[in-house]
Amino acid sequence: KIEALVARYGASTVAAVLDRALDAGEALFRSRLATIPDGRWSHRLYTEAAVPGDRAVYCYQTNITKRGERLVIDNRGTDPQAGAISMTFGPYSGGVFSALTAQLASDLSGVYGGVYRCIAFDLEAGLLSSPNHPAAISYTGASPVGAAIYSATLAVGKMLSCSRDASVRALALGPTIPAFYTNGLEFIREDGGL
Question: Which of 125, 109, 99, 145 is nearest to 21 (CA)?
């Protein structure tokens, strides 16, 4: 479809429209951020069992610091990497971006590149949300990514609740029950059946 647009309107026109869409998304995001005072918001989420038989409890934490029209995301307060409940930067940043775009830019219909220009990550290495190589990571990503989405969603919601604009405050999402704790398990019976 992109090739058809280029054939119809020319590459420079299509590129200009795409650039303007990104610029418009960035401008909308920055205008909403401008209604929120500078500050820092955090949320912690707890999970358990990094390896079979483990009964320990582990913390994932997402922190959002707002300065002017920029956000810095960090993971300080998250526990050190352990077992297979760690996640790499891709899943962690994806969880954070999903929380930010769902609440601050859902009306952009997927044109989020401009939003991403306003966000920086400052992650401490060696934690569950930024493990050092070679580290075990989740077999599916479902549990740790759910932790990233959930902790980021609540941190973003807290930030939005501080807006001076009622329409921006109304964008905040509240807590939900994190469904990522549900796992499908398979057992082998003594007779060999499932």
Answer: 109
